[in-house]
Amino acid sequence: MTVWTKTLGIVFVLTAGIVVSAAARLSPQAALEETIGGTISATRVITRDARLTGNVVCAMTASSCIQFGASGITLNLNGFTMTGLADPSIGCPEASVPSEFGIDTNNYSDVTILGPGVVQQFRNQGIIVRMNTARARVASVTSSTNCAAGIILVGSDNLVEDNFLVRNGSPTAACGGV
Fold first, then answer.
1. 147-162 burial, b for 16+ CB within 10 Å, e for fewer?
2. Do 8 and 63 reside in the same domain of the chain?
C-alpha cells in the first residue's frame, strides 16, 4: 500500500466520522409538533407543541375543541381561525352551553396559546385558563362572538397580552372580553 493510499483512507475515515457526528447534532431528538386543521368532531387533546395548518371547524357539542394534555407546550394558531357552533352574527341568543370551549388549558401550567389567529363562535368561553393553571400565556389572539367571555382567567400568575376581544357574551352571560 502506498503512502498516498493510506493518507486517502485516513482522510476518508476522518471525514465520515465528522459527517456522522455533525448529523447527529443536527437531528432533533424531540418529537415533531402536532398539526391541526379541518373539522374536529371530538375533543383534540394535545400533548406536545401543536400548530394550526388550516382553519378549524369544531363540530362537537358540550366539550372543548382543543384541550391541553401536558404542561410546558405551545398551541400556535398560525394565523388561522377556530370556529364553534354559535350563531355567526349574534353568538348565543340564550344561555351558554356547559363545557363547550374553544381552547381549554385543562389545569396544565406553563402553556402558551399564540396568535395571530381567531377563536370564534363557541357556545361558552373562547379560551379558558383553568383554576390550577399557572404561568399560561395567551398572546395575539382575536376572540369574537363567543357566548361567554372571549378569554376567561381562573388560574393565577398568567399573562394575557396583545389580544383583541369583540362581541363576546350573551343576554344571560354579559361577561364579554377577559
1. bbbbbbbebeebebee
2. no
The domain of 8 spans 1-30
pLDDT, the chain, mean: 85
Residues 6 or more apart whose Cβ sits within 8 Å of residue 105: 68, 111, 128, 129, 130, 133, 136, 155
Q: Could you tell me the three cell numbers for 33?
A: 409538533
Helix, strand, or coil here: 153?
A: strand
Residue 96: the pLDDT is 84
As a whole number, mean pLDDT of residues 157-162 equals 96
Model confidence at 168: pLDDT above 50: yes
Clarify whether residues 53 and 116 are in a common domain.
yes
57 shares its domain with 118: yes
Total domains in the fold of the chain: 2
